[in-house]
Design a protein that fits this description.
- The chain is α+β, with helices and mostly antiparallel strands and 148 residues long.
- The chain has 3 helices and 5 strands; from the N terminus they run H-E-E-E-H-E-E-H.
- A hairpin with a 7-residue loop joins strand 4 and strand 5.
Length: 148
């Protein structure tokens, strides 16, 4: 890795230079628990190769992310007793294509400013999950998934 890619956090995770708690790995993808989860079980997906944004992904790779995301969503529904799991591609914080899968306990778990009525909102940082908690969640997720 060189230049921009060598300073990319997600490239560091993808190439095992930075540790994570994974719930799924393949030659092309890694899915791991977010260290500042919106909800318990919040998973991020990254391709091992660097692509800045989701629209830069080859279609087959984007399809793999969605397919594995659906499997993980089914597992999260079972684990957390929720009806919905959010799936979204993002890229505003780190320019390396990535997706999130989040169990939705409340409709505001993933939201838009367009749907918030109050003018003044305050936010606090999401709490960091401990390694022990992440390992427990990963074990629950892996044992519930029905991946091929």
């Amino acid at each position: 890795m060189s230049g921009k890619i060598s300073s990319c956090l997600f490239c560091g995770i993808a190439h095992k230079q930075i540790s994570c708690v994974s719930v799924f790995e393949s030659a092309e993808l890694i899915a791991f628990l977010d260290t500042s989860p919106i909800r318990r079980g919040h998973v991020q997906f990254i391709p091992r190769d660097h692509f800045d944004y989701f629209d830069d992904l080859p279609a087959d790779l984007a399809g793999q992310i969605i397919r594995i995301g659906q499997e993980i969503a089914r597992a999260l529904k079972k684990l957390y007793g929720v009806d919905r799991v959010a799936f979204l591609f993002s890229g505003g914080d780190i320019p390396h294509a990535h997706a999130h899968v989040v169990p939705m306990h409340e409709k505001t778990d993933i939201t838009s400013r367009l749907y918030i009525a109050e003018d003044a909102l305050t936010f606090r940082p999401t709490p960091k999950a401990s390694l022990e908690e992440l390992e427990a969640v990963a074990g629950e997720s892996r044992s519930t998934m029905e991946l091929v």
